[in-house]
C-alpha cells in the first residue's frame, strides 16, 4: 500500500519533470517551440486562415452583417471550425457519443441485476411543480442555443445537453415518467442519418464529403452559414437523444 | 510576481491537474475515485489546450455588433473546437465507465478494485 | 474509381441505421454487417491500381489539402485498410452463425470498430487520428463487455488505461499545434526539423504513450490479456487482427513520417524486443488457451514493432509482411479456439484433450494457424520469419536475431503442446454442440497457403508500402504539393 503510493509519486514526479521542461525551453534561432502563455502567434497557424475565411478563396476583409457569400458564412468562428472546416471530426465526435450510449445500454441490460433496488418515491410538490414550469423553458433555451449556434456562443452540443437536462429533470421529478425506447432510438438514428446524408449529398453534388452545398448568405444573419445550421440541428437532436438515453439507462439500472 | 502567477496559473495549473489525476488513477482503489481522477486529467488537458490558444487582450472568435471585422485580434478558435470534441469524448468514456462500475458492484458487491480477483496475471 | 471516403461514411450510415434495421427484421443486422464489410473491400479493390500508382489525397468538406482535414491513402494505408476490412469481413461471416443478445448494438459497434480502425490508417490529420482512436477504443470497451461477468472488469481496466493514453495524446497534440501551428500530418512533418529537439522528444514520448496502448507495446499492454480472454471470440479476433494493425500503422506514421529520428526508433526497438520476450515467456506458462493466444499476440506485436524500427527497407517490408500474416493467423487461431472452447465448455488447455477427432474443422484450423506462426515451410509465416531474420542480420543486430530465434523456440513449445493435446490424447469430456466455421476456416487456410507458396502476390504492395514509410519526403510532397 505504502509502496504503491511511493511508486506513483515517483512516476508523477518523472512526468512532472519531463512535461514542465517543455515550457522552459528557450529556442535557438530558427527553432520553433510552444508559444508563451498569452502570446499565441496566430499569423502562422492554420487558425488565421479560418478567421480570415480564406482557405479556398482570397483574403478579404469580413464585415459583420455586410459581407456575403463567403466560403464559410458563420459569424461564430469556432462554429465554422466545428461544423464546417473540421466537420469530419464532429461527425466522429457524435459517433463516439452514439457508441457510448449503445455501450451503456448493453452493459446495463446484458444481465439482470442481482441486487434489490431502492423503491422510487414520489418527489416533493415543489420539485414537481417547479420542473413542470421549467421544462418547456429549458427546451426553448436549448432550441435557441442550437439555432443561434453560428451567431453566438453555443451550438448543437450545448443545445443538445440543455435539452437532455430538461428530460433528466423530468425523470427526477416523476419516477413514472418514461420516454419510449423506440422514439429515442428513432430520433438518434434519424439525426445521424441526416448528418451522414448531408455529407453524402455534398459528395455527390460537389465532389467532396461534407462539402457545403447551400448559399452561405450574409455574415451575422439568422439564415446564413449554409449547411452549418442544418448540421447543428441534427447534432442537437442527436446529442439530446443520446444524453437522454444515457441518463435513462443509468436511472433504470 | 503577478506576471509570473498569470503566466503559470494556466499552464502550470492544468499540468498539475493532469498529474494529480494521474496520481489518483494509480493509487486509488475505489473505482469511482479512479474515474474522478480520470475526469480530472481530462479537465486538465482541456484547460491546457485552451491556454495554448490564448492571446492576451484578444476577443473571443465571434463576429458581433462590437467586434465587427476579422481584422481584430482573436484568440485561437481551433483549440476551442478541439476542446469541444475532447469534452464530449471524455463524457462518453466517463459514462461508460460509470455503467461498468454499476455492473461490477452488482456482481462483486465491492467498489475496491484490489478485491476483485477475477483477472490477474 | 470510387471515392474512398465511403469506407468510413457507409459503415457510419449503416450503424446509425442499425436499430431501424433491427425493428424491420431480426436477422437483418448480421446481413447488413456482412454486406457493408464486403462493400468496403470492393471500394478498396476498385482503387487498388490507382493507389499503387500514386497516393490518393481526399479533401474533406472541399477545403484544400493542408488546411483542413484530408485523407491520405497510399500503399501503406491501403495495405492496412485491406487487412482491417478483410478481417472484419471474415469475422462477419463467422458472426452469421453466432447469436448475440442485443445484436443490433453488437453489429453497430462491430462496424464502428472497423470504420474507426480504417479511419486511423487513412486520416492525414493529427486530431482526426485521435478522434478515430477514440471511436475504435470506445467501441472496443463496449464490445468487450458483451461476455458479461469478468468481462466488465477487463473492459474497465482497458477504459482507464485508454483514458490516460488519450489525455497524453491530446497533450502531445496541443504541444505540436502550438509549436507548428497546424494539425496536418504533412505540414507537421515538413517543419519537424525546426522544432526544438527537447520539445520534440517530449512530444514523441506523449504520442508513444497515446498510441502505444493501441499497438499493445510494453509497458502499456497489461489490459490486453484480460481483454482477449474475456471478450467474445469475434471481438478478440478483430482486436488482434485489425485494431492492433491500425495501432502499429499509427505508431509507424508518427515515428517514420511525423518525427523521423533514429534515436526514437532505437527506443521502439528496445520496447518491441522486451514485449516480444516477455510475451512469449508468459504465454508459455498459461493454462488458459485464450490467455495464451493473447500473450502470443502481444509477443508478435513486439516482434513487428522491433523489426519495423530497424528502419531499413528490407526490415520494414519484413515487419509489414509479418503484420499481414499475424492478422490472418491470429483470426484463424481465435475462431478455432473459440469453437474448441465452446465444445469443451472450458478455456483450460488440459480440457481440450482429444478434441481433434470430434471437432475436425476447428482442430485443423488451429493446427494450420499454429504451424503458420511457427514458420513451417509452404505456410505464410515461414517467409516472413525468414525475411525478418535475414533483415535483422543485415542490420547487424545479432542480439535481436538471437532473441527472435529464442522466441521462436518458446513459441514452438507452447503451440505444439496444444496441438499434441488435441490429437494425441484421449477425449476426457463430453463434447458440446458448437457453431459451424467451415467457410472462414477454408478462406483463411487458402490465404495462408496462397501467401506461403506465392509470396509474390503481395510483394509489390509491400515494397511500395515500405518505400512510402522510409521516405517521408514523398508523403509531404504529395500533400503539400507545390506549396
From TrEMBL, chain A:
It comes from the Bacteria. Residues 62-106 form the MrpA C-terminal/MbhE domain. The chain crosses the membrane at residues 94-111, 123-147, 153-172, 184-202, 222-241. Residues 126-243 form the Na+/H+ antiporter MnhB subunit-related protein domain. It holds the Pfam family MnhB. One of its GO terms (cellular component) is plasma membrane. Its main location: membrane. It is found in: Cell membrane. Keywords: Cell membrane, Membrane, Transmembrane, Transmembrane helix. InterPro entries: CPA3_antiporter_subunitB, MnhB, MrpA_C/MbhE. It is a multi-pass membrane protein. Belongs to the CPA3 antiporters (TC 2.A.63) subunit B family. PANTHER family: NA(+)/H(+) ANTIPORTER SUBUNIT B, NA(+)_H(+) ANTIPORTER SUBUNIT B. This is Membrane bound protein complex subunit mbxF.
From TrEMBL, chain B:
It is found in: Cell membrane. The keyword Transmembrane applies. This is Membrane bound protein complex subunit mbxG. Keywords: Cell membrane, Membrane, Transmembrane, Transmembrane helix. PANTHER family: ANTIPORTER SUBUNIT MNHC2-RELATED. Its main location: membrane. One of its GO terms (cellular component) is plasma membrane. The keyword Endoplasmic reticulum does not apply. It comes from Halanaerobium kushneri. It is a multi-pass membrane protein. The chain crosses the membrane at residues 6-27, 34-55, 81-105. Belongs to the CPA3 antiporters (TC 2.A.63) subunit C family. It comes from the Bacteria. InterPro entries: CPA3_antiporter_subunitC, NUOK/Mnh_C1-like.
TrEMBL record, chain C:
Belongs to the CPA3 antiporters (TC 2.A.63) subunit D family. It is a multi-pass membrane protein. GO terms for cellular component: plasma membrane. The keyword Protein biosynthesis does not apply. The keyword DNA-binding does not apply. GO terms for biological process: ATP synthesis coupled electron transport. It is found in: Cell membrane; Membrane. Keywords: Cell membrane, Membrane, Transmembrane, Transmembrane helix. It comes from Halanaerobium kushneri. One of its GO terms (molecular function) is NADH dehydrogenase (ubiquinone) activity. Its main location: membrane. Residues 124-410 form the NADH:quinone oxidoreductase/Mrp antiporter transmembrane domain. The chain crosses the membrane at residues 6-24, 31-52, 72-94, 106-123, 129-146, 158-178, 198-222, 234-255, 267-285, 292-311, 323-341, 362-383, 398-416, 436-454. This is Membrane bound protein complex subunit mbxH. Pfam families: Proton_antipo_M.
Amino acid at each position: 500500500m505504502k509502496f504503491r503510493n511511493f511508486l506513483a509519486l515517483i512516476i508523477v514526479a518523472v512526468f512532472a519533470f519531463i512535461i514542465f521542461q517543455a515550457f522552459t525551453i528557450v529556442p535557438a534561432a530558427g527553432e520553433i517551440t510552444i508559444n508563451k502563455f498569452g502570446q499565441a502567434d496566430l499569423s502562422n497557424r492554420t487558425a488565421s486562415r479560418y478567421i480570415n475565411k480564406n482557405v479556398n478563396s482570397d483574403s478579404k476583409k469580413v464585415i459583420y452583417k455586410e459581407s456575403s457569400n463567403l466560403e464559410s458564412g458563420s459569424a461564430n468562428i469556432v462554429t465554422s471550425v466545428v461544423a464546417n472546416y473540421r466537420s469530419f471530426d464532429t461527425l466522429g465526435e457524435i459517433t463516439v457519443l452514439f457508441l457510448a450510449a449503445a455501450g451503456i445500454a448493453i452493459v446495463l441490460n446484458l444481465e439482470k441485476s442481482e441486487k434489490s433496488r431502492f423503491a422510487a418515491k414520489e418527489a416533493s410538490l415543489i420539485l414537481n411543480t417547479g420542473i413542470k414550469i421549467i421544462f418547456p423553458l429549458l427546451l426553448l433555451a436549448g432550441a435557441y442555443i442550437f439555432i443561434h449556434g453560428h451567431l453566438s456562443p453555443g451550438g448543437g452540443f450545448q443545445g443538445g445537453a440543455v435539452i437532455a437536462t430538461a428530460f433528466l429533470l423530468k425523470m427526477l421529478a416523476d419516477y413514472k415518467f418514461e420516454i419510449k425506447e423506440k422514439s429515442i432510438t428513432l430520433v438518434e438514428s434519424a439525426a445521424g442519418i441526416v448528418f451522414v446524408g448531408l455529407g453524402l449529398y455534398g459528395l455527390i453534388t460537389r465532389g467532396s464529403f461534407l462539402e457545403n452545398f447551400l448559399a452561405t448568405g450574409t455574415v451575422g444573419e439568422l439564415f446564413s452559414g449554409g449547411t452549418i445550421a442544418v448540421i447543428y440541428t441534427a447534432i442537437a437532436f442527436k446529442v439530446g437523444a443520446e444524453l437522454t438515453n444515457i441518463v435513462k439507462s443509468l436511472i433504470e439500472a | 510576481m503577478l506576471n509570473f502567477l498569470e503566466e503559470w496559473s494556466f499552464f502550470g495549473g492544468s499540468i498539475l491537474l493532469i498529474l494529480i489525476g494521474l496520481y489518483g488513477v494509480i493509487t486509488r482503489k475505489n473505482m469511482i475515485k479512479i474515474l474522478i481522477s480520470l475526469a480530472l486529467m481530462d479537465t486538465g488537458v482541456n484547460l491546457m489546450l485552451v491556454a495554448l490558444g490564448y492571446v492576451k487582450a484578444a476577443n473571443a472568435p465571434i463576429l458581433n455588433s462590437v467586434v465587427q471585422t476579422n481584422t481584430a485580434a482573436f484568440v485561437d478558435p481551433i483549440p476551442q473546437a478541439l476542446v469541444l470534441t475532447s469534452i464530449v469524448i471524455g463524457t462518453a468514456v466517463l459514462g461508460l465507465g460509470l455503467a461498468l462500475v454499476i455492473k461490477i458492484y452488482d456482481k462483486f458487491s465491492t467498489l475496491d478494485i484490489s478485491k476483485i480477483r477475477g483477472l490477474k496475471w | 474509381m470510387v471515392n474512398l471516403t465511403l469506407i468510413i461514411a457507409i459503415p457510419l450510415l449503416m450503424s446509425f441505421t442499425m436499430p431501424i434495421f433491427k425493428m424491420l427484421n431480426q436477422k437483418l443486422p448480421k446481413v447488413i454487417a456482412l454486406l457493408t464489410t464486403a462493400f468496403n473491400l470492393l471500394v478498396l479493390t476498385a482503387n487498388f491500381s490507382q493507389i499503387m500508382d500514386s497516393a490518393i489525397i481526399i479533401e474533406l468538406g472541399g477545403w484544400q489539402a493542408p488546411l483542413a482535414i484530408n485523407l491520405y491513402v497510399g500503399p501503406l494505408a491501403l495495405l492496412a485498410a485491406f487487412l482491417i476490412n478483410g478481417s472484419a469481413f471474415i469475422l462477419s461471416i463467422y458472426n452469421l452463425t453466432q447469436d448475440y443478445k442485443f445484436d443490433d448494438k453488437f453489429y453497430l459497434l462491430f462496424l464502428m470498430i472497423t470504420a474507426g480502425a480504417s479511419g486511423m490508417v487513412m486520416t492525414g490529420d493529427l486530431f482526426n487520428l485521435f478522434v478515430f482512436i477514440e471511436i475504435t477504443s470506445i467501441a472496443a470497451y463496449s464490445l468487450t463487455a458483451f461476455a458479461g461477468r469478468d468481462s466488465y472488469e477487463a473492459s474497465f481496466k482497458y477504459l482507464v488505461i485508454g483514458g490516460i493514453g488519450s489525455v497524453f495524446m491530446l497533450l502531445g497534440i496541443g504541444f505540436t499545434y502550438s509549436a507548428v501551428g497546424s494539425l496536418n500530418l504533412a505540414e507537421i512533418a515538413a517543419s519537424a526539423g525546426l522544432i526544438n529537439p527537447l520539445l520534440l522528444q517530449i512530444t514523441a514520448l506523449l504520442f508513444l504513450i497515446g498510441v502505444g496502448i493501441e499497438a499493445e507495446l510494453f509497458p502499456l499492454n497489461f489490459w490486453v490479456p484480460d481483454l482477449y480472454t474475456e471478450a467474445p471470440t469475434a471481438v478478440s479476433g478483430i482486436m488482434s487482427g485489425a485494431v492492433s494493425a491500425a495501432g502499429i500503422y499509427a505508431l509507424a506514421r508518427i515515428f517514420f513520417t511525423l518525427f523521423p529520428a533514429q534515436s526514437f526508433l532505437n527506443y521502439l526497438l528496445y520496447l518491441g524486443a522486451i514485449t516480444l520476450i516477455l510475451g512469449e515467456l508468459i504465454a508459455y506458462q498459461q493454462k488458459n488457451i485464450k490467455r495464451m493466444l493473447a500473450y502470443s499476440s502481444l509477443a508478435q506485436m513486439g516482434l513487428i514493432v522491433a523489426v519495423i524500427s530497424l528502419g531499413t527497407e528490407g526490415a520494414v517490408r519484413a515487419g509489414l509482411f509479418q503484420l499481414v500474416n499475424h492478422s490472418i493467423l491470429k483470426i484463424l487461431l481465435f475462431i478455432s479456439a473459440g469453437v474448441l472452447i465452446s465444445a469443451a465448455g472450458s478455456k483450460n488447455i488440459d480440457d481440450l484433450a482429444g478434441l481433434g477427432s470430434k471437432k475436425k474443422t476447428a482442430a485443423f484450423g488451429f493446427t494450420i494457424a499454429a504451424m503458420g506462426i511457427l514458420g513451417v515451410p509452404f505456410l505464410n509465416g515461414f517467409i516472413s520469419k525468414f525475411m525478418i531474420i535475414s533483415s535483422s542480420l543485415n542490420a547487424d543486430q545479432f542480439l535481436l536475431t538471437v532473441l527472435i530465434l529464442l522466441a521462436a523456440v518458446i513459441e514452438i513449445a507452447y503451440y505444439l503442446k496444444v496441438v499434441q493435446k488435441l490429437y494425441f490424447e484421449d477425449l476426457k469430456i463430453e463434447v458440446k454442440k458448437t457453431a459451424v466455421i467451415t467457410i472462414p476456416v477454408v478462406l483463411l487456410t487458402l490465404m495462408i497457403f496462397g501467401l506461403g507458396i506465392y509470396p509474390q502476390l503481395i510483394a509489390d504492395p509491400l515494397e511500395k508500402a515500405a518505400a512510402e514509410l522510409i521516405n517521408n519526403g514523398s508523403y509531404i510532397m504529395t500533400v503539400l504539393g507545390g506549396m
